[in-house]
Write a structure and sequence with these properties.
This protein is α/β, with parallel strands linked by helices. Helices cover 40% and strands 12% of the residues. It has a seven-stranded parallel beta sheet with strand order 14-13-15-17-19-21-20.
């Protein structure tokens, strides 16, 4: 027998050892029913006399009737960690419980239940949770009814289901027979003692204790055991509305981690989604109650794993040339910072844009399959380098009105509708028709071939030069006819033209030569003169032997593009773009927001590239609680006070200087008597004017110091009411001073640059928080609220400012 010593107020005698079968047999003998047919009921018997202080806790209370415990379903957030358990929402838990009660635990077809906004599927019989939209190891799921917490634990942990079943059977017998102080021993060595309904303890076997613990009291310290989720402290989520109003795809930046806690894009998007749900409940509460608002679904788009996976082999290539010193720093550089250089490489840029576009299209297809009734709009969000990737993708999208006519589009290179056979016959090269058709070559694919490609097919030098020369001339002829129609009035690159000896411009000829080189080497339909912002190559075209980028097409037209901490402005400038035409807009996306933190070292503005004649301040994003941060109010108020003080000092100096510079009256030449009266009147008027001016200056000084002395009261009023009257008046004055300016068509004429308000602690030293500022967008409620307001404004849902 294992003797478990009690602690303070503990057992004065050893509790009897009873297993579950003994308890059930005893219950059957007492009631005359089989254990499996036993219906629990109240037995009005007194508890056996005992001196145990545990039993004295509830001696005066009558035993409560047995009621079956209500289980709740929990899950592990990570597959490699079973020490953290989180509860499902009540709706999801009820769905899982109903499914289990319907099919039971017997073997059969697997039952799959969608949970967490249908982002996960739970296999009920297998007790596993599988991610739907991203790759993740399956995690364990439990149907929990009993929980424990150690002395050093911060929250209760669920027992395994078989452990819970034995505890519940013992509890049922104890309640029904009103016999407590029962000891349960498990094969693993744990011992659970049921002292009374409110006090149940678990004791660990000494052999399983931590070897570093030497104190016997520490080795035998019990765990607290609780029955039912209602008796523990746990935050159960309310669940998400089934209706989805809007879908947002979020693309990460460089590296596998997205914040200072080195969390993945999946975890960061989960936090952003949770923040948006909370803001919907506070800022669209009435619309939610009326059923006008459902929720916004955010899905992560991961491209880093595809770039650094085994398919590309780039990590192995980089590792071979990496120096062995400072290995951790070099590993961080290879895994994170090199993504910028990969995107500027034509080879790996193609991999990145293909991965992003294919992942977005795949997620879009899965979402439509699981939400067949969804008819809302779709937006995209890009952070850091992810915003540049989306910018290039959206720039190179096509729609019905301005579809680009590239080589692979099949629209501009038809050779007057000639077939391959007609062309070879015209050139007298019909004997090579079978050779080319064996490789499935037509005129469009032939235009992409180089001399070495035809050489590999066994075509001699003369015929292949003749064929390539014909393709070049015909394509340049077709291209020159349609060049003007293909160039939109969008972002324009400054032409790099050169003059010959006669002063004639030769830029057109160089462009035609660049087009020919491109026709021989490209693998896509991208034309740099259409929108020369592709991958950062030279403006005049792509040199022979380089590779162009085939920008894939998205399966939908995004409604809005949000850029977080974006270097788009810098990359456009480095690529040679000095000005964005105000008339330009994305072919398939009509709205664009550039959101950044004021201390973000990677973020750049967009509006100065569109409106060059006016110095526009960025739009300040309001705090999600509906006011300006207090330290910014204080900063603005002190600035205004210093300006008032400066104006008063300069006014006093100006008056003093004028008084010194005035010519004395006694120095004037004598006047006639006729002018004496006029002089006296003039002196009197000057004296009265001086008195009035002095009185006005004194009034201004008094008013200024009154404002200074009343500032603490105004600050206290700001803290209580969440607003400052002086700030409102200054903001309204600024709005009156700055007329509304239409900032191009990238955002339908509205403002593009939006800046977050820095936190008070960040104002002390902006350099210390520079890196954090670039990674703060995933947890920023102000950013999430801006997205929600843009989305629901277009849906016509009224925005509500919560009361402070």
């Amino acid at each position: 027998m294992l003797h478990i010593p009690g602690e303070e107020g503990g057992l004065s005698e050893a509790a009897p050892e009873v297993n579950n079968q003994d308890l059930l047999d005893k219950l059957a003998q007492k009631t005359g029913n089989a254990p499996e047919d036993q219906v629990p009921h109240v037995v009005d018997e007194a508890s056996p006399s005992s001196t145990s202080s545990f039993e004295l806790l509830d001696m005066d209370s009558a035993p409560a009737p047995y009621r079956e415990v209500q289980p709740h379903w929990f899950f592990c957030p990570r597959g490699d960690d079973n020490t953290t358990w989180l509860p499902f929402s009540r709706d999801d838990s009820d769905k899982l419980e109903n499914a289990l009660n319907t099919v039971g635990d017997k073997e059969g077809d697997e039952v799959v239940i969608a949970v967490d906004g249908e982002r996960y599927d739970v296999h009920v019989r297998e007790r596993k949770r599988y991610a739907v939209y991203w790759e993740q190891d399956p995690t364990e799921v439990r149907r929990c009814s009993w929980f424990y917490k150690g002395d050093k634990d911060t929250k209760f942990m669920p027992y395994p289901e078989d452990f819970c079943k034995r505890l519940e059977e013992a509890y049922m017998v104890a309640v029904t027979l009103n016999e407590w102080k029962t000891k349960l021993e498990f094969p693993s060595g744990e011992t659970v003692i049921l002292h009374n309904p409110k006090l149940i303890m678990q004791y660990q076997p000494i052999g399983l204790q931590d070897e570093w613990q030497s104190s016997p009291s520490e080795q035998t310290r019990p765990r607290t055991v609780k029955r039912g989720v209602c008796n523990i402290t746990v935050e159960i989520p309310e669940g998400e509305p089934e209706k989805v109003d809007h879908l947002v795809f979020m693309v990460h930046g460089i590296g596998p981690a997205c914040d200072l806690r080195f969390r993945s894009i999946i975890q960061c998007v989960n936090d952003f989604r949770s923040a948006s749900l909370s803001l919907l409940g506070s800022h669209y509460k009435r619309a939610q109650q009326d059923g006008q608002v459902g929720r916004v679904e955010f899905l992560p788009v991961n491209w880093h794993s595809a770039l650094h996976g085994d398919a590309t082999g780039v990590d192995e290539d980089i590792q071979r040339i990496t120096l062995p010193s400072i290995s951790r720093l070099r590993h961080f550089t290879n895994d994170t910072l090199l993504d910028l250089f990969f995107y500027n490489s034509p080879t790996y840029c193609q991999t990145i844009v293909d991965t992003v576009a294919s992942e977005i299209n795949k997620l879009h297809t899965l979402f439509k399959q699981r939400h067949s009734g969804f008819n809302g709009a779709i937006s995209v969000v890009g952070h850091s380098l992810g915003s540049l990737i989306l910018f290039d993708l959206l720039t190179n999208q096509r729609n019905g009105s301005n579809a680009r006519q590239g080589v692979l589009s099949g629209e501009s290179f038809h050779m007057h509708h000639d077939t391959l056979q007609d062309t070879l016959t015209r050139l007298g090269l019909q004997q090579y028709l079978d050779t080319l058709q064996a490789e499935n070559l037509d005129l469009e694919s032939l235009a992409l071939c180089q001399d070495c490609d035809l050489k590999d097919l066994g075509i001699p030098l003369g015929p292949r030069k003749k064929l390539l020369n014909y393709v070049r001339k015909k394509w340049l002829s077709e291209d020159s006819k349609n060049r003007a129609g293909r160039l939109p009035p969008g972002i324009q690159v400054q032409p790099e033209s050169s003059s010959d000896q006669d002063g004639n411009q030769s830029s057109a000829a160089s462009k035609r030569r660049a087009h020919f080189h491109r026709a021989q080497s490209v693998t896509s339909a991208v034309e740099y003169e259409y929108f020369d912002v592709g991958i950062g190559q030279t403006n005049g075209g792509i040199a022979k032997g380089q590779v162009s980028i085939n920008y894939p097409q998205l399966a939908f037209h995004p409604q809005t593009f949000f850029a977080f901490g974006s270097p788009i402005g810098m990359f456009l400038t480095v690529r040679g773009l000095k000005h964005i035409d105000p008339k330009y807009s994305f072919p398939t996306c009509k709205s664009f927001y550039n959101i950044y933190h004021p201390f973000d070292p990677v973020a750049y503005r967009i509006e100065p590239m569109i409106v060059t004649e006016v110095d526009l301040e960025p739009m300040l994003i309001p705090h999600h609680k509906g006011r300006k941060r207090m330290h910014l109010e204080l900063k603005d108020s002190l600035t205004r006070m210093s300006m008032d003080l400066k104006n008063n000092v300069f006014g006093s100096l100006r008056t003093a200087w004028q008084s010194f510079a005035r010519i004395p009256v006694a120095a004037l030449p004598p006047l006639d008597e006729a002018n004496t009266t006029i002089e006296n009147d003039l002196q009197e008027s000057q004296a009265s004017a001086a008195v009035s001016a002095s009185a006005k200056r004194e009034e201004q000084r008094a008013d200024f110091w009154t404002k200074v002395l009343e500032w603490p009261r105004a600050l206290h009023k700001h803290n209580l009411q969440g607003t400052c009257e002086e700030a409102e008046s200054s903001e309204s004055a600024e709005q009156r001073e700055q007329p509304e300016i239409k900032v191009g068509m990238l955002n339908e004429g509205r403002r593009i640059d939006y800046v977050l308000q820095e936190k008070p602690i960040e104002s002390f030293n902006e350099y210390l928080f520079a890196i954090q500022s670039h990674l703060c967008y995933w947890e920023s409620e102000d950013t999430a609220l801006l997205l929600l307001k843009e989305i629901y404004d277009k849906l016509g849902v009224a925005f509500e400012q919560p009361q402070q």
